[in-house]
Design a protein that fits this description.
Chain A: Residues 84-460 form the Circularly permuted ATP-grasp type domain. The complex is a heterodimer of chains A (484) and B (317). Chain A is α+β, with helices and mostly antiparallel strands. Chain A has a domain at 354-416: Dna Ligase, domain 1, CATH 3.30.1490.270. Chain A contains 14 helices and 24 strands. Chain B has two domains: 1-151, no CATH class; 153-309, no CATH class. By secondary structure, chain B is mostly helical. Chain B is globular and about 55 Å long. Chain B contains 15 helices and no strands. Classes of the chains: A alpha+beta (484), B mainly alpha (317).
């Protein structure tokens, strides 16, 4: 396809909503992008892309893949696409309101589960599903948490169906990653494609880092003017280490590993050359299991012994709180619209994707009869691992999965194969269409919920693929929210 | 500042300095051959001796040839002291502590590393080795210059710089030793080498400006050991190393007494140089002086490690 205008040749199949084209028409808010790209020659588009890829590499904006033993082969830059994703102001309004509502409900749910458990007593959510959940932490029962906030940073994944309506695909409430890619994508667009960026009234995102820091600060248990905030990372071999350093650097937090911390008198200190420095807020990017060898996994070297005691004594805030995983479990997800009605007495603004629980016999049989049309997910795995994508699976894979489901129905949910919207990407200077989703980031501190304008648009780089996760080779686009 | 961060900073300083010294030396030595001492084997051998591990080299190759030596010293990732390895080590250390230093520095060093990793030896020898070494020096100078220009002058800066100066003083000692090893009967013919040493540290013009007439190994050694106004002299390096340690006093209570001991050690090494007279450095005493300096450097390196990097582990919960 030589010119970008030649839509008819590879006009996207109408089964999916296309972000840029409405049939053969360009959607109004993409008009200018379309013009600019059409005016560029193929070589221009290729060289512009190359320039951006070079910057990604130089700045070391990488994602380290787990597994393998070659230090060099592991570090990959995230594929970045130069065609931005644009969200009109009114559309964003809905997303923002819906995200805010959802985060408030999820926080209310966690506070309820770890205190009164009204929602279980009222029979809205099966008790077994919560209490038997691998992410449920008895240590958190009846523990007052600062600001009543369990989930400080969350990433809500949205998709669009064939009509263009937004649905929530999943909630990431433990340690969602992707913040740094949002900011880096924006910086690449402003530096390497300024003529396009500045021709749109795009909402800035710089403030969100400030909001993030403020949210963490407001959770400090002390009334000290400048509480010490530290980011706890598993270390430089972690896949998201780039993100950890980025956030620490941009927000002026201490970046620490477990071995840098020590617990004394139920307070947590950073061991510095100049002596000990007490930590007030710990923004942690390691899983519950590894936080404290005395409370959780005794073989963990990543956390700090005594952290949970310090937490229980109210000497430190942990964000996100331990035990939030119970709310982002893929089976609990089905109940979020209920939670919104139950706790907030509001109508859900953003809907769930229809989801079948394998633990309900009739739903299970319904799904097992149609595995080739379904996407089956393990409830407790994230990052695109442990999935069966029905339409793309083989007979043998489906049989294996069916056996797994019958063996452990509680561990699986199924959804009709979702219709992710597609967006044009620049592939070697030509336009191709790929599936995308949107991870919206929200920051809560008990008083407010800040929603980062835009978020992370993830692209499934393989043709026809529905898996957008970075761990599976997904790419990203800059996401622009228009302010008018 | 955390112990592991201090350690990484110290090594970033050391490795960037080492890479620069190696690049300078190779550049000069490489072009020295054209002055025709007529024994290419010996030339390459001396270059390898000056900055590499000869035993390792001889295990791998059966003779000292240009291509092999050049690869071994610049681009061989399996040789710990090659320029590529030094840059990679500096980058790895910086990667671990990215948030401690301005991101401009990371972008520079990472970009530089990626470029160097992609260089093929054929390109170097076919085009112009001088151009290649020039680029090496410029890349490292850009890193150093940017650091000087924008890095916060807190404890992390002093850690970085103390690594740099300790490395520098050690490199100069080794450089002088490698020239001093030329057999006495060849001393007369070692003029070219002496000149090369001076040029490799960028000190030739400075040497001239100080009206030092005679370019002899004795004079050049005196200059590189004692000349406190020249930034690549041992005296200058040790004095700066001591200054940076002193600057850390305010930041470091925990290692107070250990730090004071270190400052005294560094002060002692520096003042001993200060008391040295020109005439104390002669052809006969040079070796002993250098040996002593090497010992002092090693002692300081160990002391830094003891003071900053290996605190006692404790678990109190």
């Amino acid at each position: 396809m030589e010119t970008i205008n030649d839509v008819s040749v590879n006009s996207p199949s109408s089964r999916f909503y296309n972000e840029m084209y409405n049939g053969a028409q360009v959607r109004a808010h993409y008009n200018h992008v379309h013009q600019v790209l059409s005016r560029m020659s193929l070589e221009d588009r290729v060289s512009r892309q190359t320039q951006m890829n070079g910057r990604l590499l130089e700045e070391g904006i990488t994602f380290t893949l787990s597994g393998g033993d070659q230090p060099d082969a592991l570090e990959r830059t995230i594929p970045f696409d130069l065609i931005p994703r644009i969200i009109p102001a009114t559309e964003w309004e809905t997303i923002e309101q819906g995200t805010r509502q959802r985060v408030r409900a999820l926080n209310a749910f966690l506070a309820d589960i770890y205190h009164e458990q009204c929602i279980l007593k009222d029979g809205l959510v099966p008790r077994r599903m919560v209490m038997g959940n691998r992410y449920f932490r008895t240590e958190m029962m009846r523990l007052p948490v600062p600001g009543g906030t369990y989930v400080t940073a969350s990433g809500i994944d949205l998709i669009r169906d064939e009509k263009g309506d937004y649905f929530v695909l999943e909630d990431n409430l433990r340690s969602p990653s992707g913040f740094s890619y949002v900011f880096k994508s924006r910086s690449i667009m402003t530096h390497d494609f300024p003529e396009l960026y500045f021709s749109y009234p795009v909402k800035g995102i710089e403030r969100s880092l400030h909001d993030f820091r403020t949210s963490l600060r407001n959770l400090a248990p002390t009334d000290r003017a400048e509480p010490v905030i530290a980011l706890l990372t598993p270390g430089s071999f972690n896949s998201a280490y780039f993100e950890h350093t980025f956030l620490a650097q941009q927000m002026g937090m201490e970046l620490v590993e477990g071995r840098d911390l020590v617990c004394r008198d139920n307070k947590i200190y950073i061991r510095k050359l100049s002596g000990l420095k007490q930590v007030d807020v710990l923004y942690r990017r390691i899983d519950d299991d590894y936080l404290d060898p005395l409370a959780f996994r005794p073989d963990s070297m990543l956390g700090v012994a005594g952290l949970m005691n310090a937490y229980r004594f109210g000497n430190i805030t942990i964000a996100n709180a331990p035990g939030t995983g119970v709310a982002d479990d893929k089976a609990i997800y089905t109940f979020v619209p209920e939670m919104i009605r139950y706790y907030l007495n509001e109508r859900p603004i953003l809907n769930n994707v229809p989801t079948y629980l394998m633990s309900r016999p009739d739903e299970r049989e319904h799904v097992l009869g149609r595995l080739e049309e379904m996407v089956v997910k393990e409830t407790s795995l994230s990052g695109g691992y442990g999935m069966l994508v029905g339409p793309a699976s083989t007979e043998w894979e489906r049989e294996r999965f069916a056996a797994k489901i019958r063996e452990n129905p509680d561990n699986y949910i199924a959804q009709p194969t979702i219709k992710l919207s597609t967006s044009p990407i620049n592939l070697d200077g030509r336009v191709a269409h790929r599936h995308i989703d949107l991870r919206v980031f929200a920051l809560a501190d008990g008083k407010n919920v800040h929603v980062l304008p835009g978020g992370l648009t993830r692209v499934a780089m393989k043709e026809g693929s529905l898996v957008v996760n970075s761990s599976q080779g997904g790419g990203v686009k800059d996401t622009w929210v228009l302010s008018e | 500042m955390l112990d592991r961060i201090a350690e990484s900073l110290f090594w970033i300083g050391r490795y960037t300095e080492r890479a620069e010294n190696h690049a300078r030396l190779l550049d000069v030595y490489y072009h020295l051959r054209e002055e025709g001492s007529g024994e290419p084997e010996a030339v390459w051998r001396r270059i390898a001796e000056a900055i590499g591990d000869c035993a390792l080299y001889e295990e791998r190759y059966d003779g000292y040839r240009e291509q092999d030596v050049l690869y071994f010293l610049t681009l061989d990732p399996t040789q710990d002291n090659s320029i590529l390895s030094c840059v990679a080590q500096a980058r790895d250390n910086l990667k671990k502590i990215r948030e401690q230093l301005p991101s401009e520095l990371w972008n520079l060093l990472n970009g530089f590393y990626l470029w160097l990793k992609g260089v093929r030896l054929e390109e170097v020898t076919q085009q112009s080795p001088h151009r290649f070494f020039q680029r090496l020096k410029e890349g490292l100078a850009a890193f150093q210059g940017t650091a000087v220009s924008i890095a916060l002058r807190d404890e992390s800066w002093h850690m970085l710089e103390s690594g740099r100066y300790l490395e520098r003083s050690e490199n100069i000692v080794r450089l002088l030793q490698s020239v001093g090893n030329i057999a006495p009967d060849k001393r007369k013919g070692s003029y070219a080498y002496t000149m090369a040493v001076l040029k490799s540290v960028g000190g030739y013009e400075a040497f001239r400006r100080l009206d030092l007439e005679e370019i002899s190994l004795e004079e050049v050694s005196r200059f590189l050991v004692l000349q406190e106004t020249f930034p690549r002299s041992i005296h200058f390096a040790l004095a700066n190393f001591e200054q940076h340690l002193k600057a850390m006093r305010g930041h470091s209570e925990k290692s107070g007494s250990a730090l004071e001991r270190m400052i005294r050690l560094a002060g002692k090494a520096r003042s001993e140089l200060g008391w040295l007279d020109r005439n104390d450095i002669t052809m006969d005493s040079l070796n002993a002086v250098l040996q002593q300096l090497l010992g002092a450097n090693r002692q300081l390196g160990e002391a830094v490690a003891r003071t900053f990097f290996f605190p006692e582990r404790e678990v109190i919960a």
